[in-house]
Amino acid sequence: MNIVDMTPRLVHEAREGSRDAFAQLVRLHHESVRAFLCRHLPRTDVAEDVAQEVFLVAYRRIGEYRGDAQFSTWLLAIARNLALEYLRRETRRKRRDLEAALAREQAERLSGLGEDVVEHEQTLDALRGCIEDLPAESRSVVRRFYFEREPAESIAESVGKKAGTVRMTLLRIRRALGDCVRSKLQGRGADR
Amino acid sequence: MNRQEILELWTAYLDEQSSSEQDTVLEQQLERDAAMREFVVRDLEIEGLLQSLGRAKATEETFVSSVMGQLSAEESEIEDDTARSQQFISHEITSPPVMPPPLPPPVQNPASPLPLAGECQTVPAPPVAIPTGPAPEPAIGPDFFGENAKTRRRASSGGRPRRRRNWGPLMTTAAAVLLVVSLGVGALVVSNRSPVADSTNGPAGNQAQSTVPPDRLDPESPDPESPDPEGPDPLRSDPGDGPAVSRPGGSLSPPPPWVPGDNVAADDDDRPGESEAPATTPRQDGSEIRPGPLMAGDPSPSSGSSTDPFPSEAVVRGRIVDQSGADWSSPAPTEIHNQLLRLSNGVVTIALTDGASIQVRGPAELKLDSPNRVTLERGDLAAAVPPAAIGFTVSTPSARVVDLGTEFRVLVSDGGDTAVRVERGRVEMSSAPDANDADTWQLEAGDYKWVSGDGRRNLDWSLRLSVADDAVQGSLDLNGRLFRFASTAEFLPLYARAYQELADLRRLVSSDRSRRGESPFRAEIAINDQVSTITTAEEYRRAYPDVHRKLQELLTGSISRGAGGANRAFGGSFNINGEEIRIDAVDDLLKLQDQLRDRVFGGFHGGIDQPNDRPVDGGARRDAEANGPGAAVPRNPRRDTVVPNPFEQGLVPRSPDAGDNSPNTPSGITVPGQQVSINQVSIN
After folding, report:
1. Do A27 and B538 touch (CB under 8 A)?
2. Pairing relationship of beta strands B440-444 and B481-485 according to DSSP bridges
3. Residue A179 C-alpha, separation from nearest chain B C-alpha, in angstroms
4. What is the pLDDT of residues B287-332, one digit of tens each?
């Protein structure tokens, strides 16, 4: 994979007006952008909407990308701005419900993250590694639930448990993954 | 509630298995437990990452093509600017246009069922006179919303947004396309059928004249004088001469899928003095309504109480007769007096004491002001009104709807916009809940009208045209003024105006609210009888290129065929800030257009929303907030660099790089906020 190598050339071509090059850039970078937004926005459908918006903005402004940062970083900076904008707008609503409460928390957290969007890519890498490191049984639940979109009920049925139990299991797995990611990132920080 | 229970609620919420009561409990628990809040937000992050990891790769191509499709749509919008300059020129070449007299308003057969998508272009409704007898007793069942529910988008999740939804719809490629774009009542039709014949079905009640000037279509216009109401635009010359907003809607639009925004939530602000106004407050009733066939005399002889003051709050104004999955934020009532009803979810059927039956879909906030009058602060309401209850009135923050024997629906967004859709019969709609001088329209079955909460905007156009070989004919309905055209020369100036409307529409659908499905936006696009229904800006953006291409073909064709094609010698002059510029050839015009773009329209970069940059929150610039890398650089540099000129044959100049507000009237052009003005334009 030569993402790093290919991107500058594609950016150049996209700036020259090549739609194909831009499409290629989308292909190379959408995962990271979408993951970033799924991570920081309360709903995946919103995240997907905003992710598309990120690329539309990027296309419009690609002339402004000077190459002094990684292209992916530039994209994530756009993503962060759009996500914050969304969350703040949600927060401004007078509504009082769970989602608004979550949006408030997420806005706080995301703005607390500062400009350090580079951390995101490391997080993503770490998470992938951590999933691999899971015990086989947990990995299987993760795969079925998140990757194959199998409903919790159906997973529960096949293992003779209640759906609520599966959901709680997933919660524990997520907590383990979160701990794992954090320790990996800290390890990486210590390496530096 | 212990930690375990909270976590169970949380995981159920994540998996979309919780009820809204449970969510409320969870929200309250989180409210008082900061550590738990922190925990769930971290968990939400991992959850989101896992969701994304599990999905992103598999949907890569759909994502990419969706993004690229939107880029194409945007580019097409830019081409659309080119189309506008085309009309700009064409107008000159063909002016002065001969305006046909307004058509008599058509009649809607109140008994005819609403057409299904796909067949609405094929069978014109036969002319039928308005019945003078009582309207058929409408029935309203628990599934009144049913058929529209299919077209609902996010609202279908019952008002509560869910995770793990909408990966699909987002990605779905827009269906094949095209022939009608309708916004609200409005529609843009490009068909091979002559719509003129259909629009002359006969006389209709035309007491109500639209008095909304086109200017009001665009609330965000920074300059109310542009376009100039005194200008030569034929469409502005006789704002009062047109017929009522009435058209053979039944042959055009299926019921619009009103999407009560999933964020239309009961907010905590009561409106003191309004929602709590005593029911005894006399409000203008039947006396305000111009008497129509159904309105002679007492609108409701068998229910005089509807117009009487109510001496006591004890009067029962209505009863709940059915609730399906209703979540009340206010105490659940059975007998309704004057209390404010807050429905957070579900559907409730209420029988009003005077006979009207309403269904309300939450989230909604309403109040029965009398046994025959409802104030709907927000929400989605469908009403079936038997003859005995004619005069039944729905007041909203922005409008008033008086029944004239109907079934109709009212949607009030949380921004206070009101949309009304008449399913059967007629209603009278006023642009303000109480004002005597409000604009008033009579709406008939199939009609759809939207009044914005700020009272300034009223977007309502309908263009129906048929194209067969070189001939163009059709009609254009602009805010109730109906114009007919039977040639390209007549059509082009009308289209120029319609284009402006379309540009407004484009901005509308770009707006944040409609993006969220909160705005009663609706478009239909059909080609060769294949109809696509569009309810979100997303879908609109995808479908737009096709509509545009069709029109582009038409215009390019008609211009090149004689109305000022490249072969035709012509000359003219522009006067820009006192400097006269002669043009003697198409090339000169092309150059001039470039100059115009640079000198005049370039100023638009400053402050006017462009469609590609979705305005948010009432026009606040997304760019200003989302100051991504290099936010200060002129927006849309792509317009100047990458956009291919679709008219490379030299037929037409490149687009002035204008925003939606760019003038397209042929002379007396002023640019809002700019010193530059074009005082005279003449060609030939």
Report:
1. no
2. unpaired
3. 10
4. 333 323 222 233 333 333 333 333 444 577 888 877 777 777 777 7
